[in-house]
TrEMBL record:
Residues 46-294 form the PD-(D/E)XK endonuclease-like domain. Residues 15-29 have a biased composition (Low complexity). It comes from Streptomyces viridosporus T7A. This is RecB family exonuclease. GO terms for molecular function: exonuclease activity.
Length: 323
């Protein structure tokens, strides 16, 4: 879900092309990627942390991304997040003694080239930078974020059980939850730690609960899959050099499950009725879809799915917080 915007912290949004505030975006992955290929619209069938956050932030944004699949431009912040994530993942390919800050920084140029090859659209970010000065500054900032990680964790003492782990679980209700976990550590005694890297700054304490929503989502999926409650959830904020930890208990995850079920009911109602309401906030300034948003004088594209009469209670869209 990134840099916190006061009062409106969002979980990490993974697509390189995701709209939103300066972001902590990880590698684009199937769990959260917004498809914009013009494929026929289909009703949503699963929920990821990013898409859950979209709906809570603004139901109309969820519609634009999931139902309409409107294209979104890449951003420097989100793309840098993707680059940093890929460097930290690749560093663990090296033997423990060779996981040093200089080696990690040396990975940045090559991972940037790989990213450009796999996602050519990111080259648009620096199309107006013929001398490469802005690109050089951008890469240098990525190197600083990578270097800061070594002040927060010692990779020579870590042997992750999983990196960039795709997880998916179906709840008893039939709701499918899915996502990508940056890193999973398993202690010799079996305790599980879920770790997520953020290239933004840590939120203020009063907004920490919102930042933990993504992690509790992952913990719920792991619990349902493995029958084990993760011992610790850990957010590593490279932008500010902070580490936020939380030790969940089953009651926490049960509350998250109830919240997600209520959220999914609201999404299904909106899908069936076509009633996707905008929810204006300070995050609107980062949205790519103002031209289609009624709050900015725009008109949404024709709704591509069948609709039925609105159900009572549909006006509750978007009022639910993260936990």
């Amino acid at each position: 879900m990134e840099t916190s915007t006061e009062g409106a912290t969002r979980p990490d949004s993974r697509p390189v092309a995701a709209a939103g505030p300066p972001a902590t975006a990880g590698p684009a992955a199937v769990a959260d990627t917004v498809v914009t290929t013009g494929a026929p619209a289909v009703p949503p069938a699963s929920l990821s942390p990013s898409r859950a956050s979209d709906f809570m932030q603004c139901p109309l944004l969820y519609r634009f991304r999931v139902i309409d699949r409107l294209p979104e431009k890449p951003s420097e912040a989100a793309t840098r997040g993707t680059l940093v994530h890929s460097v930290l993942e690749r560093l663990f390919d090296a033997p423990a003694a060779e996981r040093t800050a200089p080696r990690a920084k040396a990975l940045v140029p090559g991972q940037w080239e790989r990213l450009r090859e796999s996602r050519p659209e990111v080259a648009e970010l620096f199309a107006d930078d013929p001398e490469g000065e802005r690109l050089a500054r951008w890469l240098a900032e990525a190197e600083r974020l990578v270097e800061r990680w070594f002040t927060l964790e010692d990779p020579s003492r870590l042997e992750p059980a999983e990196r960039e782990l795709f997880v998916e679980a179906e709840l008893d209700s039939g709701l499918r939850l899915r996502g990508i976990i940056d890193r999973v550590d398993v202690a010799p005694t079996g305790e599980v730690r879920i770790v997520d890297y953020k290239t933004g700054k840590a939120p203020r304490p009063e907004y920490a609960e919102g930042a933990l929503f993504q992690m509790k989502f992952y913990a719920l999926v792991v619990w349902r899959l493995k029958k084990v409650v993760p011992r610790r959830l850990q957010l590593v904020y490279l932008g500010s050099g902070d580490v936020l930890t939380y030790d969940p208990v089953p009651a926490d995850l049960e509350r998250v499950e109830r919240k997600l079920l209520a959220l999914w009911d609201a999404i299904r109602t909106a899908t069936g009725t076509g009633d996707w309401r905008p929810r204006p906030s300070k995050l609107c300034g980062w949205c790519d879809h103002q031209a289609h948003c009624p709050e900015f004088g725009g008109t949404p594209p024709p709704y591509p799915l069948p609709v039925r009469a609105a159900e009572s209670g549909g006006g509750q869209q978007g009022r639910m917080g993260p936990d």
